[in-house]
Amino acid sequence: MTRTAWGAGFTTEASDGTTLDAWFRWLGWGEYGAELDQDPGQRRSEANTRFGTAAPPGASPAASIDSALAGGERKDPVRQVVVRPIRVTIDVDEPPTSAADVYLRLHLLSHRLAVPRSLNLDGVFGQLATVAWTDLGPVAPADVDDVRLSLRADGRSLLVRGLDKFPAMTDYVIPSGVRIGDAARVRLGAHLAEGTVVMHEGFCNFNAGTLGTSMVEGRISQGVVVGEGSDIGGGSSIMGTLSGGGTEQITIGERCLIGANGGIGISLGDDCVVEAGLYITAGTLVRLPDGEVVKGKDVSGISGMMFIRHSQTGAIEARQRAGKWGGLNAALH
Fold this sequence. Notes:
By secondary structure, the protein is α/β, with parallel strands linked by helices.
């Protein structure tokens, strides 16, 4: 079944016509305009409940958005870009067809209107340009030196925070009920459930994230989903889908703990613990409680297990858990 989503906001275009970014101030599910006017009271996101101030009393939500966008095109001579209004409807089950299309999908994820792995993101890298993300906004990399020169003439400087195809989430979306120690380490398109804490060394990629209250002090790679009450320990790592075969999608269940500097290339069910410093991949040999030795892929998704390394033999073992690891500190969330 085809699913459509709409967005309205602004794009930034470089002097050569390249789309550098798109910010969707209003967005939701369905067709733009018709969807809004048919059901103006339904709250699809916090963003689409605020329609600007230029609309006359009694105007429809779609008309309010159109009024807010009217006359919005402007040139920024310092950054050498043009900011243009945009209204778009996309089919999220088909591959994206433009940079703006990609940005709307990323906004849907970060606004928590879609969960990771529920939208078609095939070919996203080919649709996006590498951008210089600066304290003034997106700039084409080839124009950075000219922008610096223009600013220096006024005694100002330019801070380039990164060169990447994806911006920081918080430059576009501020989800409610989360804490992020270093905003640069959470990409637009990350899905952070309410109650999530991402500490300074934590990282969350696009099309990945948490489904409930979680502590993130390690890396959540693209395509990874973390369940309620789980803790991704400091320096830990979870394999994503952007390298290798790109077909294995890793899920971490509820109330799991990946110890500091540990990591996984397999899924975990609920109530699992991975010992600090232990990395388990699909090919890792694991000894089960009954003595059988299997590969990591054979225990992928299992619940109620503790994965440890024997302190004398070095063998990796999966032991049935008898207790709890203590759970998250509620005061931090």
